[in-house]
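The passage that follows is intended for readers who have already worked through the single-chain material. We present the inputs for a multi-component assembly, then the predicted structure in tokenized form, and finally a short commentary. You are encouraged to pause after the input and sketch how you expect the pieces to fit together before reading on.
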Amino acid sequence: MKIKVSNKLDDLNRLVNEIKESSSEIGAVIIFIGVVRGVGRDGGKVLSLEYEAYEDVAEKALEKIIEDLKEKHGIIDAIIEHRVGLTNVGEDTVYALVASKHREEGFKSIIELIERLKHEVPIWKKEITDKGSQWIENP
Amino acid sequence: MVINWLLESWCSFMARVKVKYFGRLREMLGVKEEEYDVEDATLADLLMNYIPKRHSDAAEEWRQSIFVTIRGEVSVSRDGAPLLRNYFVLIGGRSVEVTYKLKDGDEVAILPPVGGG
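Having made your guess, compare it with the prediction:
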């Protein structure tokens, strides 16, 4: 398991290799990449996104989510990295990797992981567009 | 002897707590974290009185943001505790009720609705 909330994401290929090496039982690695979208909630052109986190607590919350997914779906391992600070359109903001024996539990887990990340983990996002700026609450 | 007793009693009512703000609250108050010396206070006292008193310019916006209000008045539960909107408060990383009695050294984190991902 690897969790990182930081102003720099690691190289994705390296993360894939890292998770694959964690067990010889792995038969599937499902990857989610969060990207800064160019169109904002207000319909304006996004200039940047600013992420802020309660880092210690965010990392503990992500650890708990992975532990829950291991217990619920039997995944083998997971990695989550989330950006903080200023990000620009097209940049990667989240890497989530789930390794499992088979694809089914991997797909279920990656969806649940991202949903829970968006609703339970203390990370905030301010969207700055050509129309103004606003803190975004996940629906 | 009496002086010591008085001092100990006084100290047991006093607490220095650190308060952390995030996202829109940090912007609203213009500060990331700060300390408060509170006297025999609950979390509700901190949120309702101490913080808006220090940040009087933003007091109304603060009240409207973090509490459930009806016609400008903060709504309370049956036991009289103010009702928070969709904000969470963690103390030492754990979720607490507004009736929590503040202790010396507590780290209070006030969390707006999250928006990660």
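Commentary: Chain B touches chain A at residues 20, 22-24, 26-27, 86, 90, 93, 109, 111-117 (CB under 8 Å). The radius of gyration of chain B is 15 Å. How closely did your sketch match?
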